[in-house]
Amino acid sequence: MDHVDPRRLIPRTNELLELPGVREAGTRLNGRVIRDLVQHFQEQSRRGELAPGQVASALLAAVAARRATTLRPVLNATGVIVHTNLGRAPLSAAAIEAVVAASGYVDVELDLGDGSRSSRGAGARAALLAACPAAEDALVVNNGAAALVLATTALAAGREVVVSRGELVEIGAGFRLPDLITSTGARLHEVGTTNRTHLRDYAAAVGPDTGCVLKVHPSNFRVDGFTSAVPLDELGPLAKANGIPLVADLGSGLLAPDPHLPHEPDAATALADGADVVTASGDKLLGGPQAGLLLGRKEIITQLARHPLARAVRADKLALAALEATIAGEPPPVVEALHADVGQLRRRTDTLAQALGVPVVAHEGRVGGGGAPGVALPGWALRLPEGVARLLRAGDPAVLPRVHDGSCLVDLRCVPEGDDERLLYAVRQALADLEVAGEGRAG
Ligand SMILES: *Cc1c(COP(=O)(O)O)cnc(C)c1O
């Protein structure tokens, strides 16, 4: 008998595309994506890594599992509320509904009454002003960094931004404030020292070349010891006397004070203290979509809105919809997690611990996202063997626990109560898989 090259047994492309499960996937996946999968398994088989007879079943399984998005929802069991690697703030139900409503054609720049063009994002602006009456006007841009660069560019390009050396911070990976501010043509005029800056330092620095004075909230670290910084309510009068705008970068996005976060600056207080404009993020403590908020004096906001850069950093319709609904709707998950009842957390954790037969340990949650670095949020966690972490992350639903001191800790603070059953299922699954892998349960 002739020797048959097994590669000749690999099903042909047309044959595979005609499989019912593959045809059905054509209603929800791009044709190219399906053909790429077909090719992938054919090539695997050509390399001898997959038997020709298994190509069809492998393809069917892959096609059934393939979604148009590769982003996967994750249960956040870290206790870190604004988790940058998990997309910061989860949206409220109201915001999700608004995003869905805005995803088609929507009157984001249209007055349906008379059919004329209207100002973009008027609803989000109105919501911000209603929630923060201290602001005369508001503008929403792409993110907090964009808000800051727009403010410093419009007010100080070709001139100086006066800022304390103690506030020239790196916010996140690769995002350094001084680089950002100088990238569009403003010059930095640094005053004071790393640990101490006085009002007289600012007073000596401001002059005809000053475009604005900038006060940055060093949101992701604390300086202890021999330190001093000039509060906004002392900078305000100085800026005012010199006719120079005072910009406050708050970062966190609190619109009003939160008694749980006494050291976290908020827009209303900053404006009352004399800031002419404040910048903040939409997806930190406000609990909304990625957005940059600018709130403050009307003439300055107008000036910023008219700057050419404003068009390059404008917010998209989905973010505008979600932002408005975050402010007008029920408290978003970030606020709920921040104010979670400790007793309730304990009861939920105990219930899962009993069902699983694992211990409960005290565990402190964090605000995260470069906010309130010193604030610990008392709570609880399930303590599991460290090896479970990897299995939880890869599981379905995917769970991100905290790995600490040789343990895998599962904190329920940021898990919606309605997901406790799914979390229980995921942990049970991961523990079982660990048993199978023979790593035991000790820990
Ligand atoms: C987070 C933060 C920013 C950047 O905001 P993004 O929304 O991440 O662009 C800027 N300044 C401060 C003080 C921050 O905390």
TrEMBL record:
What coarse category fits the chief subcellular location reported for this protein? cytoplasm
Keyword Transferase: yes or no? yes
Cellular component aspect of the GO annotation: cytoplasm
Q: Which Pfam families match?
A: Se-cys_synth_N, SelA
Task: Please name the pathway.
Answer: Aminoacyl-tRNA biosynthesis; selenocysteinyl-tRNA(Sec) biosynthesis; selenocysteinyl-tRNA(Sec) from L-seryl-tRNA(Sec) (bacterial route): step 1/1
Any one GO molecular-function label of the UniProt entry? L-seryl-tRNA(Sec) selenium transferase activity
Which cofactor(s) are needed, names only?
pyridoxal 5'-phosphate
Q: What is its EC number?
A: 2.9.1.1
Gene Ontology BP annotations: conversion of seryl-tRNAsec to selenocys-tRNAsec; selenocysteine incorporation
Where N6-(pyridoxal phosphate)lysine occurs, the residues are: 284
Identify its protein family: Belongs to the SelA family.
Q: What does this protein do?
A: Converts seryl-tRNA(Sec) to selenocysteinyl-tRNA(Sec) required for selenoprotein biosynthesis.
Know the name of this protein? L-seryl-tRNA(Sec) selenium transferase
